[in-house]
Design goal:
This protein is α+β, with helices and mostly antiparallel strands. It has 2 domains: about 1-115 and about 275-285, Roll (Diaminopimelate Epimerase, Chain A, domain 1), CATH 3.10.310; about 120-275, Diaminopimelate Epimerase, Chain A, domain 1 (Roll), CATH 3.10.310.10. Helix content is about 20%, strand content about 40%. A hairpin with a 6-residue loop joins β3 and β4 (about 55-60).
């Protein structure tokens, strides 16, 4: 098998979020896809197969299980199709979360992917904030109490945790195996702390993403779906306007920094999210 490694949300190899991409995966069984993802070891490997409902279908696998949707896997897949096969006419993608609009945005030599996500949903966190702070290895008073702790989803559930200072996020060393005890409402959820203090003065928010222990990974460098949730959270709780364009940074703590642009539109109670990111080819992997 030939797998293409693309680093999403970066223009520099070995930054951003690495994804494996298998361009012609229609002959693979689900078990084979899972085995390949486990061998490759990236947070996600994307498998592109034909679709009867959209232009293509993508299935996303962590080393431990299949995901309904993956932002960096989608960005990597569309850029791989463009660079490896010259395919530009992708506008819709079938995923387990539903059919989404996703397309290459080409302006001269500048190539990025714009990807719609599922309208945002939120559920109030009802477990112990003290225990949540404990599994993140911070003090409870480091959690920002001006805004709520919530489960959020634009296709994948994650727990959004507002933090007062960047230094608190920087020092986190999560007790991953204990996440399900603290996340009784959605035990397989990841945890995504954020703050408004940033490394780069030209961005609006900083995030960090700690994977569910069921996924077989510890930390996601730059998370497209969670960045979409952050954008929806921002418009819902922090700056309550109808539209917003945000730039989000992630990955600095583990040397894989990258950036996601998030466009958010709120109409009545519906929050629509689109993310945009770049990607760069790194290498071919043979399995």
């Amino acid at each position: 098998m030939k797998i293409y490694q693309y680093d999403a949300f970066s223009e520099r190899p070995n930054r951003g979020n690495p994804a494996g991409v298998v361009l012609d995966a229609d002959h693979l069984t689900e078990t084979e896809m899972q085995n390949i993802a486990h061998i490759v070891g990236f947070n996600e490997t994307a498998f592109i197969i034909p679709s009867k409902k959209a232009d293509i279908q993508i299935r996303y696998f962590t080393p431990g299980h299949e995901m309904d949707l993956c932002g960096h896997g989608t960005v990597a897949s569309l850029i791989a199709l463009y660079e490896q096969k010259g395919i530009l006419d992708i506008n819709s993608v079938e995923t387990k979360a539903g059919i989404i609009n996703a397309r290459i945005n080409q302006q001269g030599s500048n190539v990025s992917v714009k990807m719609q996500q599922i309208p945002a949903k939120f559920i109030q966190f009802e477990d112990s904030a003290d225990e949540l702070a404990y599994v993140l290895e911070i003090e409870k008073n480091e959690i920002e109490d001006k805004w709520p702790i919530v489960y959020g989803s634009t296709g994948i559930w994650t727990l959004i945790v507002p933090i007062k200072k960047l230094s608190s996020i920087n020092k986190m060393s999560p007790k991953t195996e204990e996440f399900p005890k603290v996340l009784s409402q959605i035990p397989r959820s990841s945890i995504h702390p954020f703050c408004l203090e940033t490394y780069n003065q030209n961005v609006h928010m900083h995030g960090r993403h700690f994977s569910s222990p069921f996924s077989g990974t510890i930390e996601d460098p730059v998370t497209g779906t969670a960045s979409g949730v952050m954008g929806a959270y921002h418009i819902n709780n922090i700056e309550k306007v109808n539209t917003n364009a945000l730039f989000i940074e992630q990955g600095q703590e583990i040397g894989r920094d990258g950036f996601v642009k998030v466009n958010v539109v709120k109409t009545n109670d519906i929050i629509e999210v689109e993310i945009e990111g770049k990607g760069v080819f790194v290498k071919e992997i043979t399995v």
